[in-house]
Structures are given as C-alpha cells and as structure tokens.
Amino acid sequence: MQSSVFEYFLQSGRSKVVNQRDKQPWLSRAGLALANWSERWFPDPLIFAFIGIVVVFLIGLATGERPSTMAIQGGKSFWALIPFTMQMVMIIVGGYVVASSAPVGRIIDRIASIPKTPRTAVALVALVAMLAGLLSWGFSLICGGFLVRRLAYRIPGMDYRAAGAAGYLGNGVVWALGLSSSAAMFMATRTSIPPALFNISGLIPLTQTIFLWQSMVMAVALILGALFIAYRSVPSPDRAKTVHDFHLPPDTAPVMEPRTRPGEWLEYSPILTIVVVAVLLTYLIDVFRTSPQGALAALDLNTYNLMFITAGLLLHWKPKRFMRAVTECIPATGGVLIQFPFYAMIFGMITNTGLSAKAAHLFASVTTHETYALLVAAYSALLGLFIPSGGSKWVVEAPYVMQAAITNQVHLGWVVQIYNASEALPGMINPFFMLPLLGILKIRARDLVGFTALYLVVQVPIVFFFCWLFSQTIPFAGVVK
After folding, report:
1. Residue 237 gets which letter from DSSP?
2. pTM for this one?
3. Is the pLDDT of residue 16 over 50?
4. Residue 64 Ramachandran class (φ > 0 left, ψ -120 to 50 alpha, else beta)
5. Where are the domains of the chain?
C-alpha cells in the first residue's frame, strides 16, 4: 500500500515536470536538444581544416590534376598567408586590450546594471555583442564575454549557455558586414591581395562593400532577427543552467603587482605611453588626411589594427597593464596561428593549379546574373564548414568567384558582401572563433553550439533573400587597378 502511494506521488511529480517542460518556449527546448547533440558529435576546428585539405586534394585528382602537383603547390603555399595571419592575430589582441581596460570595464558594469530578468539580460548581451561586432569581431567577443560574466551573478536564473551564445552573436551574425570584415578589408588593402587575385578583381574600397546602403539594410535585418531569437530562446529559471552550475568564481578586478625594483619604474609610468600614443596618433591622422581616395579608403587592415592597439595603450595608460592584457589574450590566438597555414595550403592547391580556372569555368557555366548570388551564397556557406576563417576562406574562394562575377556582370563589391553574409552562417555551428569567448566564460564550445544553431535557422532565409535581391539591382562596375 505504501509502495503504491509512493509510486503515485512519484508519477505525479514526473507528470508535473513534463508539463513544466512542455510549457517551455519551443526555441528553448530546441536549443537544449541541439546542445545535447552537439556535445557528442562536434570535433575540434582543426579537423575541419584537415578535411578541407583532403577534399580539395581529392577534387584535384578527380579533375585530372597530378597528385605531385597538388602536394607541391600546397606545400609551397604553407607560409603564403603569414602577413594576413598576423593581421588576424592583431585583431584579437587589439580587441582584447581595449575591452579589458578599466574604462571599458566600467562601461560594461553600467550596462550590466540595466536588465532585471534573464530574458532581457540575454537580449541585451546579444544587442551589445552585435553592435560591438560591427566595430570589431575581436572586441565583440571579449566585450560580450565580460558582459556575460558580469550579468551571471547579477541576474538569478539566467542561463549561462544562452547568454554565452548571445555574446557570440557579434561574431556569428554581423561581424563580416562591419569594419573588421576580413574579406572587405583584404580587398581594400593592396599589400594583402595576392597578385593572381589582384589581376582579376583589382582593388575594391570599403565604399563599395561594407558601406553600401544595401549592406547596412541586411545588417539591420539580421540584428532584429537575432534579437527575437535571443529573447525567446532563454530557458526559464527552473530549466536554466546558471553560472553556479559551472562552479565558476565571481569576477574580481585584476590587481597589478607592486613595483619592486628601480628598473621597473618606466613600466609603471605613463610617460612612455603618452609619447608613443602621440607618435601613433600623428601618423594615423596623416594617413586619413593624405589618402588620395578619401578617409574611408585609408581604413585597411593595418590601419584598423593600429587604431585599436593605440586605443589599448591609451586606455591601459601604463605599459605594465597593457602588457598584462596582451599576455592574457595570447592563448586565444593559438587556433589562428596554427590553422591559417593549413588554409594557405588549400589556397595553393586551388590557385596554383588548374583547379581555379576549372572552378571559375564551372561557376560561369552554371550561373546566370539572376542565380549567381544564391549559388555563391550556398557555396560559401558550405565551404565555411571546412574553412571557418572568413579571411583565409576568401583567399581560397575569391579568384574563381570574382571571375564568374565579372562574366555574369555582378557588382564586385556586392559579391564581397554576399560572401561576407553567407560565410558567417556556418560560424554559428563551427566553434573556431568562439575560442576567445570560451576562454573568458570558461566553458566548452559544445555548451553554446546548441543555442547558436537556433540563430542559424533565422539567418539563412534573411541572408539568401537580401543577397539575391540586391544583386539584381546594383549595377556592375568595372575593375579598379
């Protein structure tokens, strides 16, 4: 009898739990289910790069290329992207030194005091991360991570995973449409473009890519869609996995070690910082003032990174604090440093063999002016699963995509934006660029991917629609060399 009563209450309790789960928004239930799946099946990002090498090698063999030629050209190109690799590393460093400075930290604290509920907190993280992402994907990841950590102990019942996924949106949704767009900056920087690509596309200034009004419209649409998902996908407090479940200590302000030797006094003094910043600012002002094509044309990768490094020096004020911030962020650059040379191998196997011409011919033969945007968007998104870096993948893809665009009379600047918007899509499920954020949150990529996959569902139709629509309306312009 007692056993029967016990079983009755046990079943009743289970029914209540099931009913409570059924009341969860379907977006949050889907996120939890996807998180469980990704935890079992997603490999390390380096595996995607290796798979890309194998796939391109096999495609080369299938299309008549000699195995030795593919291997030799891949090996020759291993170091071809070293300048670009360093530029990508400096984006991460620049973003971190700015976001980790005390003045920016105080701004983050003020922002963290605004929301009062888990849903509004996650939505606010998403908005801040995306707006910061338009400025710099490196800054967005660090700023988003710090904001999540601040909110984690302020908002009871906030799901740490959902908030972390929202903190990634600046990188996963709009970064490629903003000022740190690798492809746009790459095409606007003459010294970064390989000669083989420059002969096809020429130089494309930012006014013809990220500063097109069509690009801005698409960015706004993506931000609004992501905010909807961010607000609706947050699990209720009884289903949330909070920061306490991850057993993470609260944030504490870093304390700078006291000076112990006379030789260290310059490290703790702002004198040299002031002089160096003054020199760099003088140079930057001159770069923008003397640019023959206007200030926006002067904003390339090198100038952009130097602006962030200069701001970081000024915000940290003392060399000791600046160097501590640089040291803290270096582990987050490891994936870029080791993976970009392997992406360069893919670039070499395509551009230095007959594969590039074959791919260009294929794109030109199967696309028309009306279908070009959709096919390129789909192709770029698919290739992004194997090459998660927007910059290195553009180097691989650009030669034949640009050649086909010229054949189909599609605006070359808009082609860059088609690429930018579509190549960001697989970034929501490929954890490569989550690494800096994960380092701050101290969790694993599989904890976030389930929620970030939900944003992908909304992004795909928005991106494909606008890529197609504006490719039909922007007139083709000639190549500028």
Report:
1. T
2. 0.76
3. no
4. left
5. 80-252+330-471
